[in-house]
Amino acid sequence: MLINKQIGEWFDHFHKHPEISWKEVETTKKIAEILTEMNVKHHTFDDVTGVVAEIGEGDRIIAVRADIDALWQEVDGVFRANHSCGHDANISMVIGALAYLKEQELGGRIRFIFQPAEEKGNGAISMIERGAVDGVSHLFGVHLRPKEEIPFGKVSPAIHHGAAIFLEAKVSGEDAHGARPQQGRNALDPIFAIASFIKTIHFSPYEAYSAKLTKIQAGGESLNIIPGNAVFAIDVRAQSNSVLKALRERIDTGIQTIADLHNVKIEVNWSDYTPAAEVSEEASALARDGILEAVGEEGYAPAIITSGSDDFHFYTIHRPEIKAAMIGVGADLGPGLHHPNMTFNHDALDVGARVLATTLAKASCLD
């Protein structure tokens, strides 16, 4: 069977069988089954999902990572696992690259990391802890891009993701009758104050950053009770890790000040931190050469800057000696990533696989 047709069949399978973060059991089994059929050595793990495979020989190790989890979201009125971020495409492109490379003469070893739980922001760390990038000099990733960034037929050598972190907080005050607000400690007033406060945080206009409330839950069915307890969440993003750190510190200070002002207790929990991209110029240049060879000058697009985030960048935060870049594949993707009805041009799968294969082969032959 032609490789491009096989890539499409792999995608169809993974798209029809999505599994959420840390529960990618059948996805892991299917990837291992495909690798076994291809006679590629690989291993799984006893305590987490995911697969690591390797081809080639020698001391040099080049790696590529595919994320394998789906989102949990409402689709046509029903909550279910759904591959609206395109990880089913990423799996298929990476296996496709392996298929293209399998019979080639390589300059070293190429490792294929099929990583769980990207959507949770900690799947990359689980692979790092289990040795998936031990000895790796260059690491590449791949991801479909929305059509507003690049169209089908274009491929970018690097995606400069931003950093992100989420705050979840609980306000503890005291209920009061709607006619006697002085007898309680309103949990909603400090949340409204926090909403206003975060809009007053300013950094250099040359820095991209944002902070916005994404959840408020308070009160019950009785409309004459002023709630004393509430929970809320804030989505915090920045294009650089340093600005995200400063933004988080400002928010922490402001929330504590507002809590004191309103005489309530606010318990804060920060979670799901994802670092900004630390893109290697060398890895990006290798990807550029791979794009030019695979699809020509007309298929080349400049590096992409996006406020979205990806846990791929934990690999370089924890192993700064690794030279990394994530390749962006134009696919006329719409309405957008994470939209429950996301679609794209499936011909992009073979384009991505061929670019990846060419890039990995070039990287394996470095002096």
From TrEMBL:
One of its GO terms (molecular function) is hydrolase activity. Keywords: Manganese, Metal-binding. The Mn(2+) ion enhances activity. Transmembrane segments: none annotated. The keyword Nucleotide-binding does not apply. InterPro entries: Amidohydrolase, Bact_exopeptidase_dim_dom, Peptidase_M20, Peptidase_M20_dimer. Residues 164-256 form the Peptidase M20 dimerisation domain. Its cofactor is Mn(2+). Pfam families: M20_dimer (PF07687), Peptidase_M20 (PF01546). Mn(2+) binds at residues 85, 87, 119, 143, 338. This is Amidohydrolase. It comes from Sporosarcina thermotolerans. The lineage of its organism: Bacteria, Bacillati, Bacillota, Bacilli, Bacillales.
